[in-house]
Write a structure and sequence with these properties.
The chain is built from five helices and three strands; from the N terminus they run αβββαααα. By secondary structure, the chain is of the alpha+beta class. It has one domain: Sufe protein. Chain: A. The protein starts with a helix and ends with a helix. The structure holds FE2/S2 (inorganic) cluster (FES) (2 copies).
């Protein structure tokens, strides 16, 4: 299987890797795993409580290149969006942007699950 250029770009230069410090306010966190492969994604968002806009986002992913690329991409996409807008991001949009092959679709689902769980938190 070959990775698309966009996957490789995010894999080699992941955006927003890390986590927020414990005493930071208005942070939503999630930790989701893909049952089929065991890969794990941790995603955090920092939200402006006045206007519900996501000001910052970061992730840590223990998983395949597509999972890393999907989480890297989604942290870029959610910044500047309201929680409501971010909730609407579909895994199919991630898969399309990264040109993921069918066997890697679940990696993008992991990213959608992670952002939804972080928003819920
Ligand atoms: Fe282990 Fe994806 S199956 S890295
Ligand atoms: Fe499981 Fe990518 S192989 S998240």
């Amino acid at each position: 299987m070959t990775y698309s250029k966009k996957v490789l770009d995010h894999y080699e230069n992941p955006r927003n890797v890390g986590s927020f410090s414990d005493n930071e306010k208005n942070v939503g966190s999630s930790l989701v795993g893909a049952p089929s492969c065991g890969d794990v994604m941790k995603l955090q968002i920092k939200v402006n409580s006045q206007n519900n806009i996501i000001e910052d986002a970061c992730f840590k992913t223990y998983g395949c290149g597509s999972a890393i690329a999907s989480s890297s991409l989604i942290t870029e996409w959610v910044k500047g969006k309201t929680l409501k807008e971010a909730k609407k991001i579909k895994n199919s949009e991630i898969a399309k942007e990264l040109e993921l092959p069918p066997v890697k679709i679940h990696c993008s689902i992991l990213a959608e699950d992670a952002i939804k769980a972080a928003i819920a938190d």
